[in-house]
Amino acid sequence: MEKPNIKKSINTIIKATGLRTIDIYIIRKFLGTFFFSIVIILSLAVVFDFSEKIDDFIENGAPFREVVFDYYLNFIPYFAVLFSSLFTFISVIFFTSKMAYDTEIIAILSSGVSFRRLLLPYMISATVIAAFAFVLSNYVIPDANKVKLDFEEKYIHSRPASFDRKNIHRQIQPGIFIYMESYSNISQTGYNFSMEEFEDGKLVSKLMSDQIHWDSTKSKWTIRRYYIREIDGIHESIKEGLSIDTSLNMHPSDFTRRVNFVETMSYGELTDFIQVSKMQGETNVTAYLIERYKRIAFPFSTFILTLIGVSVSSQKVRGGIGMQLGAGLMISFSYILFMQFSSQFSIGGTLPPLLAVWIPNIIFAFVAFILYRLAPK
Question: Is the pLDDT of residue 127 over 90?
């Protein structure tokens, strides 16, 4: 039986896709350098994180198996996405600079391949990395973060996210609003509680009480020392009591969640949660919106940084690849810094969340276009 000709099969696949041998060469270089870099940086991140948290692990008695499988195994996807844009850029700079230094880029352009055509394998590789980041961000990391955050609450964070909250205003369902002057996470008790019900914009009922307490045995709220004012046109009635149990569309966990709990939601779940939070008057909606927009903007930045990287590093310069690698690091870190600054401006109310997340991409896309025009053709 004749053995299959592997080389011939590969050539057939290359011809079918319209790619050339040089395209396959660049794709292998790009993705190989990227994944190697990610593995190295993740190894370092695990080592530094472990050295920082080892005292917490020992003090809180975290089992070794849970440290490895519940924490660090779920720690890796999150940081892989976090560093993906940075190491996409560094990978492009590193191997393209080396190709330029070895005059490979000159040889490719001299053979009749245009600079625009040269970008094709780079963009194919960038698409693979962007898809990798998008899938991880929206479908893998949320489930991984559920396990990781549970581990952190159990073995790292020694106290609840917040002991007390003040002046809580919330719409728990359409037309029903609640207010608490303060709420204690420890006793699961709210003080000076009131609830108002509106129909067609008119107040029809108002409840006021000294306390509202979560009864975990009944899974209900107990309202103590209350009176209810019912309004029917010009007629009013008042009902008083010492205690009443009721089911409300809120739970004690709503007041103890950390902001980063949205990292445990898929894109669809996050979108639905934001709509509910807006209805309830949640104060952290801007942070939730930023998280949702980042899940699209961050993978998209892969294409922009790839174009910048190729444009900067495709020309042979004196001093070897060190100068280009240094310039690449400066640009990539400035992008990440810009992203963080714009997000904080949005949380502070200065910028709309969508603009805050996308403005670094817009500005760096303009930079990429200028560098592309200046790149040697």
Answer: yes
